[in-house]
Amino acid sequence: MRPANVVTAIADVLAGISISGYLSPLGWSPLPILLLCISTIGLYSGGIIFNDVFDSELDRVERPERPIPSGVISKVEATVFGILFFGIGMGTAYLLGLASTVLAIAIMLACLVYNRWAKHHLLLGPLNMGLCRGLNLLLGVSIISSEVGQWWFLAIVPIIYIASITMISRGEVHGGNKKMLYFAGILYTIVIVSILFFAGIRGDISITILFIVPFAWMIFKPLIKAIDNPIGPNIGKAVKAGVIALIFMNAAWASVFADWKIALVIIFLLPLSILLSKAFAVT
What we know:
Blueprint: H1 3-20, H2 30-54, H3 56-62, H4 67-70, H5 75-94, H6 98-118, H7 124-141, H8 145-151, H9 156-169, H10 178-202, H11 205-228, H12 232-244, H13 246-257, H14 260-267, H15 269-279
């Protein structure tokens, strides 16, 4: 299930809720927020579980320590487990309305298409993986269904970011390509500039910078090390940092569309994600 990654998916949804403006008026209810968090837990976990199901034969060669090839769980059991989590994700989204349901279906399909077909495609794979995260951000926005149509284009930013991480991750086992790592650095920069651009349009950029600076440090430090020596372990650390740093990125979104207090709530997820990353695999 990659529990540390699941925490970052919750951060995606909280960022989306901030973008929707749901937290601005007084009297908002915590129940829809809780349902969306449960939904993204189910959808993300289901997608990760099916990643291992579809990769089980390849993992017997490249990553025999993973649960299925190591014999901790059977392929059939993992499949049932994944279906259960997809059901949780779909069911809770259904309780919130049509927009959330459609987005949940789209996330599930994007996960399955990536796991089954797109993963090993040079361009389609990273874009497909990015789409999963972009849709997850919109799942949060769907807490006010009418806002999805207004802010759908913001999903392009996490699509670019996750696509870059996905490109990097291809070098985890056998080492990476420096050109690809440099390209990922360019995409990281585009993501940072994009968030700062919206912060500048909407008001005080100084608050957002407080979240962008640690975000940039967290993603560029291991990336630079991987560029200097693109061996598998260094690339793995760059990928791990990139995934967990999503919490900083989502906090930055919250600071742009809500306020620093909401952003700080999202940041509180970081220690939990880091702690889980020490006990469970991230990649």
